[in-house]
Recover the amino acids of this structure.
């Protein structure tokens, strides 16, 4: 079994890139792979707690919490989060916040890296 | 290299596919990229289908948009997210989200 | 007693981007705007799908994978609320699509009106006729 | 002098559409126009308080606060904000939160509407 | 109608400009739309400059990207945000952000 | 003692989108990654600008209007930190640009190396050579 590092830079609500990143994480974990998920840029939106579920918007808080209980490693870019006003005290339990070098360190021993950047 | 390229938009704003010359290329159509598989314009298939590559399209993104595997040509393999994991680990060594 | 007419023009495919859905939810909000206005004043919303935007009108969209409402259901809701929904005929033809491929009615919800597949010229007339345009 | 209603649906950080919307608001107010600014979708990011100013990211909190003191009317789409986890208690002082019909009501007596939607 | 159309991207994903037929059209190049004014490809000017329209480009968006008014053709008026307000109120009655 | 090589490929113009700048800040983070690694282990970052991405390299970008750092200054910082910065020659030529139009050195910061304008073929070699690709 291998290690997959996913970086996602797009927002939770407004784009479905994060939905895909989370689904891919779940599918990889189900096959026994270890998964690190780095969220940066607008993707740091995933790290905010107390998002409200509405039928018109993406909602991943519950899924991500369950996946973290099963071992998914989620880290948000601290500067990207702070610049948006997402502070430590509103961060979803279990999500870590580090500098960008965390993503590179995760890639160091990853077998595969999927970087969802563009746009 | 063996490269899996993800196309997630219908109107691409980059021409990177034209330059990539890996030993093996897989093009995975997801999100709004699935329209390349389902939709012709003035009777012509999307130019995105014109590369020398293996083609895949994500089933759930097809169905979310009102299409089914029946709307997709035989040269494009309909896959699940679980299949994407296997493609990344077993068939390709690098990936590019365009 | 005055009426302000808004034209909502959807030019892009949805799902990946929330913009087409926001066009529809904002247009639907024309039905509850009276609370802010004087008696008899109105805001109307016409909706037109042009270019790749017509792909939002495809029938049989499945909500379960993203666990989110579809643009199809929002178009039906717009019809139920008697909003004028126009779909560009030339763009459907460009994609090899016909009226059969797109959402036309919302009978199951009891809607009295239907979406209209019209030549671009009619959408142009609507754009001339409204007070303000909102491109999505 | 007239009234300009601006709707902006793009995010503060990650796109410069909101920067432009705020600059346009300021320029219109300087000419004596009344300006309503509606933020919806990812644009609701403008309504979050305590954003941190970094040189790598857009930062509008100070500018918007000053413009609101001069009469700029800023309203965020409540559902768009809530779905993202932006709640009342983290809202920038002076920014209102209403349903989408507020935007349409603002357009009712606007002389001009600039809707920054697409993307 | 008199329509002010804002172009804020270099690669447009919509073909709306092709269909708009207002009595008077103004095209305002802002943000990454300014590249249409500054940049030729293989010697050719951007097709966005090929419409029957009055053209404007935002000075600060030029300079932010490393260009000046000297990089822009005479047929394009270099303007400020303050000028955009006047265009919206005085010269056009509707606007379209494409 | 192992080295993992990352290739950062910038395909789009910046400013309006923060993505090219995030490419550079992430690449620069390769200089501080050791705190997470064992002694002697390394992560290297090569940066290539291709397609419209080369527009990020235009000289004389002014930061004051948006009150934000420019991609120009981030490229200079990358050079100061000895990162390998490649700019696609064919794409510059397509836009009628030359080495004179783009950021090549960061002498004023004391950088020892320069950005290299190279044929796409060399960027392709870099892409083959690295362990993982990150497209922006």
């Amino acid at each position: 079994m291998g290690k997959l590092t996913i970086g996602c830079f797009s927002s939770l609500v407004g784009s479905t890139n994060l939905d895909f990143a989370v689904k891919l994480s779940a599918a990889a974990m189900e096959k026994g792979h270890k998964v690190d998920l780095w969220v940066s840029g607008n993707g740091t939106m995933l790290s905010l707690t107390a998002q409200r579920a509405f039928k018109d918007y993406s909602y991943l808080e519950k899924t991500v919490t369950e996946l973290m209980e099963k071992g998914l490693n989620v880290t948000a870019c601290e500067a990207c989060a702070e610049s948006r006003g997402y502070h430590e005290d509103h961060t979803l339990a279990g999500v870590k916040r580090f500098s960008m070098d965390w993503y590179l360190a995760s890639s160091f021993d990853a077998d595969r890296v999927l970087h969802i950047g563009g746009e | 290299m063996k490269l899996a390229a993800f196309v997630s938009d219908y109107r691409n704003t980059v021409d990177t596919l034209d330059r990539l010359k890996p030993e093996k290329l897989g093009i995975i159509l997801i999100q709004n990229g699935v329209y390349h598989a389902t939709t012709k314009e003035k009777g012509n298939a999307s130019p995105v289908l014109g590369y020398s590559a293996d083609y895949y399209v994500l089933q759930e993104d097809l169905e979310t948009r009102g299409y089914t595997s029946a709307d997709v040509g035989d040269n494009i393999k309909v896959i699940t997210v679980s299949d994407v994991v296997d493609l990344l680990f077993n068939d390709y060594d690098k990936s590019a989200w365009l | 007693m005055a009426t302000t007419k808004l034209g909502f023009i959807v030019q892009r495919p949805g799902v990946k981007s929330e913009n087409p859905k926001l066009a529809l939810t904002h247009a639907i909000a024309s039905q509850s705007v009276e609370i802010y206005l004087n008696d008899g004043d109105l805001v109307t919303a016409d909706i037109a799908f042009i270019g790749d935007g017509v792909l939002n009108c495809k029938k049989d969209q499945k909500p379960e994978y993203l666990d989110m409402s579809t643009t199809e259901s929002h178009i039906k809701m717009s019809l139920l609320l008697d909003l004028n929904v126009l779909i560009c005929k030339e763009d459907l033809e460009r994609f090899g699509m016909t009226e059969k491929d797109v959402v036309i009615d919302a009978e199951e919800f009891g809607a009295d009106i239907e979406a209209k597949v019209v030549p671009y010229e009619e959408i142009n007339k609507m754009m001339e006729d409204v007070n303000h345009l909102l491109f999505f």
Q: What stands out?
A: Residues 3-46+58-110 of chain A form a domain with the Hypothetical Protein Ychn; Chain: A, fold (CATH 3.40.1260.10). Chain A has a mean pLDDT of 94. Helices of chain A lie at 17-30, 61-69, 78-83, 101-108.
